[in-house]
């Protein structure tokens, strides 16, 4: 029995403090005045009576009622029922002061009367809202209505009501019990209190149903999950009672968990700062304070009135796991909206109505009860009972529960299990002997039913209704409640004008009532309600819950594991070794891991199993592999099962030294997880305690054997009260000492697994920071503050430095923390705990000493046999910087080598070593997979190409647990992921990285391999090289010195320039102007003549200037020759200027430049200042036909732009320097235009308007045809549409429109805006020509803003938007990631092609090609073009080079291409060193592959025009590789100036002492080209003067295989002597061994073999055969090129002799295949699959297309195409015979000899059987069907109809006729089988 009400309080408005800003309340009276001993009076009630603040009102309000909840210091809740009514305020203050107040209130008129609130408050520990409402209402009614009952009596009776807490109506309940529940206050009233049957279930009334109505299903579920996962929840409403109800509802649906954080359903406004608390809470606040809650950033706000829940961005609420969430939502909607299900029915049932609110409330609660039963099913099987007496201590094994439920990844459940509510749940409901309630019954008996009903909502609904009924009965136990009799005041009574104030009550009277009742209580026997205790059933175990598919691990795998273990213990080493890889793979599966632990247990006798070395090694590998896949939680208990084993398996190392398995399996995070150790400890303690009580009942042991620990504990708890005190004490002691002994045992175990074998280095524990993992099983850290605490944990006790003592200290600290925690929780005495703390350091120290001995002995063991390190082959001059470090090469995102899509055994991971040389980084090793163990895997790249290096931690399934690794990415499209072997000390790895960095970024370009080659590595750092050529150095120095001098004084007055006399070229006097050159070491101010001071060797050097690429090319193009006839020079439009010979005008230009004849050098110097980097326009190529020239320059400086396009007649304030410069610029451009023949023909007129159409119409007709094409191209480049002639888009294709001079695009497009056009087509040709400008300037759009086009000038600006180099850099990075990903992509939305697209690399290629094709078109149509983009050394270089390559066939030869690169890229100063980040200085700028982009463009053109290039694709790849490799000096430094400064520009021809070390890549290519046709394109058959115009759309572009191909057998094939030189040696060794018969079969792996070598194309193969034949015959082998030229010559003569041109004469050689010139697959395939010449010709034509016909081998050569099948022609004939074939239209039927060839997959026919010459071929790949035919006109007579059959191909229909029907059937079947085989 308990009191219904503890206190009655009267609270009123504090009139005394009325003047203050906020009103206050005060307690007027309280009863009883003394506090109850068991229940002190709660403080601050007056605040809760008026939560929004005490205020006066101008009129009376209706009375209000609500219940507030206060929580005291002991977490007990007090329910304060507040009944508030309003009374007139007595005017106690004098009139005077009132008027004073009026003045102060600045004219606010005080109303005549004010009303103040007064509250009647009941304080109770019970929550009976309706009873409180009735009682307080009655007191108010008696007061208002003036009834004749004294208020003191009512209050006295109220305070002396005693009611039972729980226990509803059970059958046979007597009258007395009934009367206890009925109360009366003595005013003729009567109420029956519904006490719940079981008070552990919450009472909710209708509050839950109301909450769902207010907020909706999803919102309440969010609040529910937020409350369970410990977030802060704030409820807002304008009604206080609604707030209380909502909070009560939230707590009700959380049952069986209890909310244990701050809970304030109604928070007074004065206490709003409570909302800033860091702990979770559920708080209700009046909507009046809504604005003050807006700043709360981590609070979930539910607005009950508006029905919204607001979750801040920073908060993530974990929701219920699926499918539970969906099921819960479904059932809730069936309860709240039953009509939803039948809403679409044509005839909905009329009876469907939702239940009444009260019933609905219970149904919703039943859903949440059902939900918790689902979530927690099986949880009692994961309880560890660690003490039974004096009180049960129980812990929950979270990891095991999550593992068994397969919910380890579930965020929601993890948070709930870590939360305080669950900790309370375990301690309250864990004990196995207690009273049980509905939830316990549900878990015990209904789980199976729930599982069966899971997918069926209607069955679930039925179950829910049953539960709801039980909940309803519990809350409303009386079937028929007698009518309440409680009086209420009459309607509107509160508005009466004259009301008496609530009287002052007589304390004595009330106290008498209380005392009288207390005395009566004393005399009565206290009614103790006996709790029915029993053993709590556990329900079905969680194992049964697991889906069968989780354990669906094939029995075969488990069999393999068992067999392997058996082999190991039977010492069958070979068998075990074979099975081991399969076992290690199988151990990925959980079942196999569990199987392993069981099997190993069988082999442990008496806690010890001594093994030999080999067995020990295998067992360790299996244990490591098993542990590697365990998470740190160990949810499947694998580590727990292995823990006893690792202390059992051991091997003898020497006298008295034994090494246990634990010393080899420490590198796993599970051992550093405190929670794991706790769970293990508790589990062991439970087993021992169970054994302790089983021993006591030995006689009953057989029956008790199957009892669980909880059952035994329950039995013990039942007997406990009946035991004597001594017996109780004895049991307590026994349990305590059991726990203590286990603690000692675990201190030992932990030291075993935490102390490393070599205590000097402790990788694992230091990296994981032992002690960072706090135990969270019962931690009171909540989610909201866990973040901030995590940081402080880290700093607490990680490992500091790796000294032995430190390791010991850390382990001691870790074990101490563990011991403190578990011993405190399991009630170990303080004496024992102190003893433990003293013991632990000794245990650790002892163990360290043991380990030292083991470590010493283990070092003496012979090392495990690891593969021998294979040394790599090195180039001449390449040296090893470091000895090889043993590493594993891990597979990356490319899966070919791992046996991925392509199949085959995995080549990676491979075990070997990484070598660092002065030139390359090389991995050489063998695959770890034993099936391919003999193959050698090589991966290498030049150090100079390294773009990114990052540390990775690798945990690959291998023999050891490797942690440290590096990922190295190279711009030669290679990636190495390496993991250092355990034998590599970490400091060695650091040294390796330092060396690598030093070599990658030398201080100066002198430090690169190209310069240091052949020197000892130590010299690299010193940069003190002996000067080989003293005079050369002197000259270079002086050149530089003078250049600097000249630059410093730009405006020196010079002698008048005289053209040099080219005859004296030998003396080179005129090559350099006389002034400003001082050759002697000291600065000589006098001007000397060169010839007198330069020694002969220097003159030789200077003459090289003239021999440079530029000069050769200028002579070839006729732009300037080395003769000095003055007559010629006047007529020549251009001259070679030496203005830049000292590199004074422009450092990045070559010394000799082509400029217009009429422009003096002084002008050039002035003009150059207008351009960026002084790169003024110079001519670099001239079209031999149209004489149009191509110029290149940088973009203009900002200041020069406006002047550049200023109209010459513009009025100026005065002649300024800028004006004169811009005029000179114009003169310069005009001079270029004047040089064009088409311009000078126009009789010197300057303006375009003067040209007559007649004059124009005589121009070359081919030009006319080309015009519209160019315009269209221009439009593409500008991005303009036909409808928008004036708008130019961007080259980026972004569709950005800009309106530069609207008429240019239309003019270029061949449209005349002024003339009327027919059908919108282009106008007459002469209009087109008339509008063409003489000079187009391709400029950067952003540079040309605000420029106006002058109609009088003959040049036009084409503004295009170019990408900058940063764009190229980022694009390249993405391209590398796409082509060589570092790991296999897990994101299905990012496949290879998507990554490729996102890199935008092909877009950039497309843009460059597009602009180049436009320029080619313009030049071809007779206009000159000046490319003036960015700084003139990146995109300009790309465009200018491509234009020349496309326009001039010479550049498509090997010599020409070399010349092009030397001229445009090297001489004109592309910044190779800067863009390639070759030195330390340029490291920050990063790698930008502008040259690679150019080579890719050339590759695209090569693919489209395979017959136009003399060089092969391999040549381009070779350059792409070596331009970043730094093996040659060719591509080092940024300009000729820098090369001269370093003395590498003119290396003397005879200087090279070592023939093997090539300084120039071109020399190397020349030497190689003489040896082998590797750089030669066999299809080279150029047309004279062919201008190429490739397609540039992205759909036409292909990804270059340079980016994706890899050869693991030999590494990159671009260091030729490494790959092919070694091959020759190997071939020789092969030849010697001819005794064994060799298989003709070849297996070719796409990523392993070099296919071009293993399977060469037909022509290369023939060359090889000829060479080997010549060697056999002892002849001097002929050079391949001579032989090729001979064959070509004979072919030409043959084809001339033949009267009709047959296709059998070589396709490759004949150059009149112009209609086939653009490649449609007609070339020797690079891929070499099948090594055939892939020539797509008609099937009728013969394909003997090899160059062998001139070699006396006749027509047999076709078979050599199939050289891999070493058989004769006849064996290819799968089926043959005579068939009649109908000829083409109007031709007769003819008998032919047909041969069906399965190998070549073709049907050939000959005139006769003996005939060798095939008449035609039908390719079976093109055959669509073979069907029965019918005889047609002219068919052979007297032949069965069934003998006819037809063959349908993609090209035509063939009619055949066999001799008879049988024969026909045979032919049809044979052809059909051929087709199906394919």
Describe the overall structure:
The structure is a single chain. It is elongated, with a radius of gyration of 49 Å. Helix 18 packs antiparallel against helix 19 (573-586), helix 18 packs parallel to helix 20 and helix 48 (1401-1420) packs across helix 49. The protein has 1878 residues and is of the alpha+beta class.
How widely separated are the two ends?
Answer: 93 Å
Residue windows where pLDDT falls under 50 for at least 5 positions: 92-110, 169-174, 544-552, 699-705, 763-804, 1019-1036, 1043-1103, 1123-1128, 1199-1217, 1243-1268, 1280-1330, 1548-1553, ...
What number is the mean pLDDT?
A: 75
How big a fraction of the residues is strand? 5-15%
How many β-strand stretches? 44
- The Cα radius of gyration reads 49 Å
Apparent shape: elongated
Q: Level of helix content?
A: 25-40%
Main pleated-sheet profile: 7 strands, antiparallel
User: How many helices?
Assistant: 61
Given helix and strand content, the structural type is: alpha+beta
Adjacency order of strands in the biggest sheet: 25-24-23-22-28-27-26
């Amino acid at each position: 029995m308990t009191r219904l009400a503890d206190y009655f309080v009267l609270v009123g408005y504090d009139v005394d403090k009325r003047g203050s800003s906020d009103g206050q309340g005060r307690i007027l009276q309280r009863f009883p005045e003394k506090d109850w001993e068991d229940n002190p009076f709660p403080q601050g009630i007056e605040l809760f009576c008026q939560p929004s603040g005490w205020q006066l009102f101008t009129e009376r309000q209706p009375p209000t009622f609500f219940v507030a909840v206060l929580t005291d210091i002991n977490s007990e809740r007090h329910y304060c029922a507040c009944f508030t009514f309003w009374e007139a305020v007595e005017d106690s203050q004098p009139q005077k002061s009132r008027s004073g107040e009026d003045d102060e209130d600045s004219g606010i008129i005080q109303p005549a009367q004010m009303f103040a609130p007064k509250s009647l408050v009941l304080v109770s520990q019970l929550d009976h809202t309706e009873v409180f409402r009735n009682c307080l209402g009655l007191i108010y009614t008696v007061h208002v209505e003036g009834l004749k009952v004294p208020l003191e009596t009512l209050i006295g009776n109220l305070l002396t009501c005693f009611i039972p807490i729980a226990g509803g109506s059970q059958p046979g309940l007597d009258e007395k019990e009934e009367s206890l529940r009925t109360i009366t206050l003595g005013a003729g009233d009567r109420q029956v209190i519904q006490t719940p049957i079981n008070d552990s279930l919450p009472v909710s009334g209708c509050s839950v149903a109301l909450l769902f109505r207010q907020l909706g299903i999803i919102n309440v579920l969010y609040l529910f999950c937020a409350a369970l996962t410990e977030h802060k929840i704030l409820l807002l409403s304008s009604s206080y009672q609604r707030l209380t109800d909502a909070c009560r509802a939230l707590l009700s649906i959380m049952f069986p968990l209890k909310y244990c954080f701050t809970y304030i359903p109604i928070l007074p406004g004065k206490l709003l700062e409570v909302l800033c608390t860091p702990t979770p809470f559920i708080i209700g606040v009046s909507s009046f304070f809504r604005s003050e809650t807006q700043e709360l950033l981590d609070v979930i706000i539910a607005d009950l009135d508006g029905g919204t829940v607001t979750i801040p961005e920073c908060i993530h609420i974990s929701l219920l796991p699926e499918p539970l969430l969906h099921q819960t939502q479904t059932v809730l909607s069936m309860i709240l909206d039953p009509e939803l299900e039948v809403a679409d029915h044509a005839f909905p049932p009329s009876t469907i109505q939702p239940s009444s609110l009260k019933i609905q409330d219970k149904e919703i609660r039943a859903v949440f009860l059902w939900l918790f039963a689902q979530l927690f099913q099986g949880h009692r099987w994961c309880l560890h009972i660690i003490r039974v007496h004096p009180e049960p201590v129980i812990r929950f094994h979270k990891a095991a529960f999550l593992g068994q439920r397969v919910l380890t990844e579930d965020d929601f459940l993890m948070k709930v299990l870590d939360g305080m509510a669950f900790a309370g749940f375990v301690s309250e409901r864990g004990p196995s002997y207690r009273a049980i309630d509905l939830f316990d019954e549900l878990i015990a008996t209904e789980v199976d039913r729930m599982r069966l009903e899971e997918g069926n909502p209607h069955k679930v609904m039925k179950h829910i209704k049953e539960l709801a009924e039980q909940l309803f009965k519990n809350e409303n136990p009386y079937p028929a409640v007698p009518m309440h009799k409680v009086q209420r005041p009459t309607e509107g009574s509160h508005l009466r004008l004259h009301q008496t104030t609530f009287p002052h009550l007589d304390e004595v009277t009330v106290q008498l009532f209380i005392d009288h009742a207390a005395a009566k209580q004393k005399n009565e026997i206290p009614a103790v309600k006996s709790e029915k205790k029993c053993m709590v059933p556990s329900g079905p175990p969680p194992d049964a819950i697991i889906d069968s598919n989780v354990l669906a691990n094939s029995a075969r795998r488990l069999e393999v594991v068992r067999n392997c273990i058996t082999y190991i213990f039977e010492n069958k080493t070979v068998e075990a070794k074979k099975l081991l890889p399969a076992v290690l793979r199988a151990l990925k599966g959980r079942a196999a891991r569990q199987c392993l632990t069981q099997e190993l247990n069988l082999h442990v006798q008496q806690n010890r199993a001594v093994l030999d070395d080999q067995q020990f090694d295998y067992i360790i590998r299996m244990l490591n592999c098993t542990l590697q896949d365990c998470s740190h939680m160990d949810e499947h208990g694998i580590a727990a099962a292995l823990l006893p084993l690792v202390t059992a398996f051991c091997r003898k190392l020497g006298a008295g030294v034994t090494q246990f398995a634990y010393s080899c399996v420490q590198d796993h995070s599970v051992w550093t997880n405190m929670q794991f150790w706790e769970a293990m400890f508790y589990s062991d303690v439970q087993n021992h305690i169970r054994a302790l009580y089983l021993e006591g009942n030995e006689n009953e042991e057989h029956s008790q054997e199957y009892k669980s620990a909880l059952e035994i504990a329950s039995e013990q708890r039942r007997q406990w009260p009946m035991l004597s005190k001594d017996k109780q004490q004895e049991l307590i002691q026994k349990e305590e000492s059991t726990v203590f002994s286990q603690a000692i045992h675990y201190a030992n175990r932990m030291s075993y697994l935490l102390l490393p074998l070599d205590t000097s280095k402790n990788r694992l524990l230091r990296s994981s920071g032992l002690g960072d993992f706090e135990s969270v099983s019962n931690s009171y850290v909540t989610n909201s503050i866990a973040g901030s605490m995590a940081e402080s944990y880290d700093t607490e006790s990680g490992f500091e430095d790796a000294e032995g003592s430190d390791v010991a200290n850390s382990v001691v600290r870790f074990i101490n923390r563990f011991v403190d925690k578990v011993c405190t929780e399991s009630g170990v005495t303080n004496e024992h705990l102190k003893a433990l703390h003293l013991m632990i350091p000794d245990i650790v120290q002892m163990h360290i000493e043991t380990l030292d001995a083991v470590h010493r002995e283990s070092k003496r063991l012979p090392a495990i046999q690891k593969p021998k390190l294979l040394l790599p082959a090195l180039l001449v001059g390449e040296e090893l910087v470091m000895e090889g470090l043993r590493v594993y090469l891990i597979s990356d995102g490319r899966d070919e080598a791992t046996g991925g899509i392509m199949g085959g055994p995995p080549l990676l991971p491979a075990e070997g070593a990484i070598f660092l040389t002065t030139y390359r980084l090389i991995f050489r090793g063998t695959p770890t997979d034993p099936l391919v163990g003999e193959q050698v895997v090589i991966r290498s790249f030049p150090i100079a190409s390294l773009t990114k290096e990052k540390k990775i931690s690798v945990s690959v399934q291998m023999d050891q647990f490797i942690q440290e690794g590096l990922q190295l990415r190279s711009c030669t499209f290679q990636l190495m992921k390496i993991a250092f072997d355990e034998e590599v000390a970490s400091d060695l790895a650091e040294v390796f990285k330092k060396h690598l960095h030093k070599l990658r970024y030398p201080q100066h370009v002198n430090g690169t391999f190209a310069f240091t080659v052949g020197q000892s590595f130590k010299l690299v750092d010193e940069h003190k090289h002996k000067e080989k050529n003293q005079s050369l150095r002197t000259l270079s120095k002086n050149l530089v010195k003078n250049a600097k001098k000249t630059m410093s004084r730009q405006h020196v007055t010079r002698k008048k320039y005289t053209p040099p006399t080219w005859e004296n070229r030998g003396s080179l006097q005129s090559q350099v102007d006389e002034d400003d050159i001082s050759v002697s070491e000291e600065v000589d101010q006098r001007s000397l003549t060169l010839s007198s001071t330069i020694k002969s060797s220097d003159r030789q050097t200077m003459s090289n200037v003239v021999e440079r690429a530029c000069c050769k090319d200028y002579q070839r193009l006729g732009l300037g020759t080395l003769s000095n006839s003055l007559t010629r020079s006047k007529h020549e439009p251009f001259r070679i200027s030496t203005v830049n010979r000292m590199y004074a005008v422009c450092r990045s230009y070559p010394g000799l430049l082509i400029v217009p004849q009429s422009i003096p050098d002084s002008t050039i110097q002035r003009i150059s200042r207008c351009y960026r980097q002084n790169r003024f326009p110079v001519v670099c190529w001239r079209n031999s036909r149209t004489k149009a020239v191509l110029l290149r320059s940088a973009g203009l400086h900002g200041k020069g732009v406006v002047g550049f396009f200023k109209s010459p007649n513009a009025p100026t304030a005065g002649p300024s320097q800028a004006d004169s410069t811009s005029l000179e610029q114009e003169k310069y451009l005009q001079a270029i235009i004047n040089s064009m023949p088409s311009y000078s023909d126009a009789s010197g007129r300057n303006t375009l308007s003067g040209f007559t159409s007649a004059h124009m119409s005589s121009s070359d007709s081919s030009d006319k045809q080309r015009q519209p094409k160019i315009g269209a191209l221009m439009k593409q480049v500008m991005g303009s549409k036909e409808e928008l002639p004036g708008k130019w888009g961007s080259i980026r294709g972004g569709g950005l429109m800009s309106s530069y001079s609207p008429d240019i695009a239309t003019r270029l497009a061949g449209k005349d805006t002024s003339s009327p056009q027919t059908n919108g087509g282009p106008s007459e040709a002469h209009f087109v020509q008339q509008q063409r400008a003489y000079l187009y300037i391709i400029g950067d759009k952003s540079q040309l803003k605000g420029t106006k086009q002058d109609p009088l000038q003959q040049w036009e600006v084409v503004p295009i938007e170019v990408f900058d180099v940063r764009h190229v850099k980022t694009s390249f990075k993405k391209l590398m990631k796409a082509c060589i990903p570092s790991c296999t992509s897990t994101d299905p939305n990012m496949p290879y092609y998507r990554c490729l697209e996102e890199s935008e690399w092909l877009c950039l290629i497309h843009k460059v090609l597009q602009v180049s094709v436009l320029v080619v078109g313009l030049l071809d149509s007779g206009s000159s073009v000046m490319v003036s983009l960015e700084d003139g050394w990146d995109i300009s270089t790309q465009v200018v080079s491509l234009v020349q390559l496309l326009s001039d066939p010479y550049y498509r030869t090997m010599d020409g291409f070399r010349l092009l690169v030397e001229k445009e890229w090297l001489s004109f100063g592309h910044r190779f060193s800067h863009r390639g980040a070759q030195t330390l200085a340029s490291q920050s700028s990063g790698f930008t592959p502008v040259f690679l982009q150019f080579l890719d463009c050339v590759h695209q053109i090569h693919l489209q025009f395979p017959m136009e290039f003399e060089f092969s694709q391999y040549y381009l790849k070779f350059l792409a590789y070596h331009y970043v490799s730094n093996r040659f000096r060719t591509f080092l430094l940024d300009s000729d100036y820098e090369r001269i400064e370093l003395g590498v520009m003119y290396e003397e021809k005879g200087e090279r002492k070592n023939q093997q070390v090539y300084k120039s890549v071109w020399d190397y290519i020349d030497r190689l080209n003489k040896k082998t046709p590797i750089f030669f394109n066999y299809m080279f058959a150029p047309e004279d003067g062919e201008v190429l115009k490739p397609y540039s759309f992205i759909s036409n572009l292909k990804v270059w295989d340079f980016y994706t191909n890899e050869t693991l057998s030999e590494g990159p094939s671009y260091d030729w002597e490494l790959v092919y030189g070694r091959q020759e040696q190997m071939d020789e060794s092969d030849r010697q061994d001819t005794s064994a018969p060799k298989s003709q079969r070849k297996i070719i792996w796409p990523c392993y073999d070099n296919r071009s070598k293993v399977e060469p194309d037909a022509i290369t193969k023939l060359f090889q055969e000829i060479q080997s034949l010549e060697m056999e015959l002892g002849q001097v082998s002929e050079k391949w090129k001579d032989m090729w030229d001979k064959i070509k010559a004979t072919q030409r003569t043959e084809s001339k002799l033949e009267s009709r041109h047959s296709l059998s004469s070589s396709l490759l050689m004949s150059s009149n295949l112009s209609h086939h010139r653009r490649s449609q697959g007609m070339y020797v395939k690079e891929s070499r699959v099948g090594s055939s010449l892939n020539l797509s010709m008609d099937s009728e034509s013969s394909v003997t297309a090899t160059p062998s016909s001139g070699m006396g081998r006749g027509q047999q050569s076709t078979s050599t195409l199939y050289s891999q099948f070493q058989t004769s022609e006849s064996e290819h004939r799968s089926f043959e015979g005579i068939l009649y074939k109908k000829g083409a239209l109007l031709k007769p039927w003819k008998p032919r000899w047909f041969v069906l060839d399965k190998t070549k997959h073709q049907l050939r026919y000959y005139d006769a059987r003996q005939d060798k010459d095939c008449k035609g071929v039908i390719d079976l790949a093109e055959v669509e069907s073979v069907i029965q035919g019918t005889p047609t006109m002219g068919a052979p007579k007297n032949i069965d109809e069934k003998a006819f059959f037809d063959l349908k191909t993609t090209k035509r229909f063939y009619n055949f006729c066999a001799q008879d029907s049988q024969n026909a059937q045979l032919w049809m079947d044979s052809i059909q089988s051929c087709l199906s085989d394919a």
